[in-house]
Amino acid sequence: MFYFLTMPRTLSAPVTVAFDYTRSTGPVVGRFLTGLRDGVLVAGRTSAGDVVVPPLEFDPGTHEATADFVEVAPVGTVTSWSWVPEPVAGQPFDRPFAFALVTLDGATRPFFHAVDVASPAQMSTGMRVRVRWAEERVGHINDIACFEPLPAGDAAATAGAAANQSAVDEDPQREPTPVTGVITPVSLDYVYAASPEESAFYSALLEGKIVGQRCPTCQKVYVPPRSACPADGVAPTELVELPDTGTLTTFCIVNVPFLGQKITPPYVSAYVLLDGADIAFLHLILDIPADEVRMGMRVKAVWKPRDEWGTTIENIDHFRPTGEPDADYDTYKHHL
């Protein structure tokens, strides 16, 4: 069954790509993060005499690894700042705040972090601020929750901050193990705009149909549709409705659990060559033990209930075996 392409309304949707980035800290950054966990601000002294926090891993003058470490105070002076009227996801606060460069007492270069104030009228270059520590510290930059204004002329506040610092240093319960690694969530939010060809594919899924696109030159059918045939570069103009049955070509058995996984391993992720198509697409194979899945196995789509359908390939929950005899290798060997 086929019909000619009429350009559909192009679709778009918000997409979030996220993962946890894990890195080893090394001896310099690790020392700084260990200090944060223990309520201490560790800086590095360069060969030129600058005191930098966080410490540089290598001296900018000699290129040697930093080896001279000093502690600086949890109070300092704002050298410049910027107001954030509309915070975005992942920033320190969900309310307006300031980002600032703060030169901590004992340091010669400023340190970048957030300042918790209610309005830009409460911010000024030269104002004195102090660290507000997170309630639970693990050895991460977020162990510093933010900076907060230090009352002008309040020597007791500065002394109190120093006393609190010493109390943390002398706490016999603190964990002596150095921080050697850090996990940082990384997230990107964007709006994906589908091409007219992709939009035709997703719109068809909303109707419970799978469509591909036929190249007028080589007659190959591609699913999902695309704006140009990869074999000869010609723009396909004909949409082809495909059945939801096909042949499993190549596959892998997923045995390792990972963050965000919706299915308990082991399970199979496989390329399915739909009947009438010339390229396979990736989906799940369920309703069969993972160790019984094989190349050439005939499968059929299992659709979610209609009231759960959207413009997404997830309308198809998975594929399952049809019980038919396996396809002959020669019928799919060119589509591996």
Descriptive account of the structure:
By secondary structure, the protein is mostly beta strands. The radius of gyration is 30 Å and the shape is elongated. The chain folds into two domains: 26-179, OB fold (Dihydrolipoamide Acetyltransferase, E2P), CATH 2.40.50.840; 194-335, no CATH class. The longest helix has 15 residues, at 155-169. Helix content is 11%, strand content 36%. Mean pLDDT is 89; it is low at 1-7 and 156-170.
Summarize the structure in short.
By secondary structure, this protein is mainly β.
CATH topology of the largest domain: OB fold (Dihydrolipoamide Acetyltransferase, E2P)
| Average pLDDT for all residues | 89
The number of strands is 19
Poorly predicted residue ranges: 1-7, 156-170
Shape: elongated
Identify the CATH architecture of the largest domain: Beta Barrel
Chain-wise SSE layout:
Layout: E1 2-4, E2 12-24, H1 26-37, E3 41-45, E4 51-52, E5 69-72, E6 75-84, E7 97-104, E8 111-115, E9 128-133, E10 144-149, H2 155-169, E11 181-193, H3 196-206, E12 210-214, E13 221-222, E14 238-242, E15 245-254, E16 267-274, E17 281-285, E18 298-303, E19 316-321
Antiparallel strand pairs: 1-14, 2-11, 3-4, 3-5, 6-7, 6-9, 7-8, 9-10, 12-13, 12-14, 15-16, 15-18, 16-17, 18-19
Q: Which characteristics define this entry?
A:
336 residues, mainly beta, disordered N terminus, 2 domains, 19 strands, single chain, OB fold (Dihydrolipoamide Acetyltransferase, E2P)
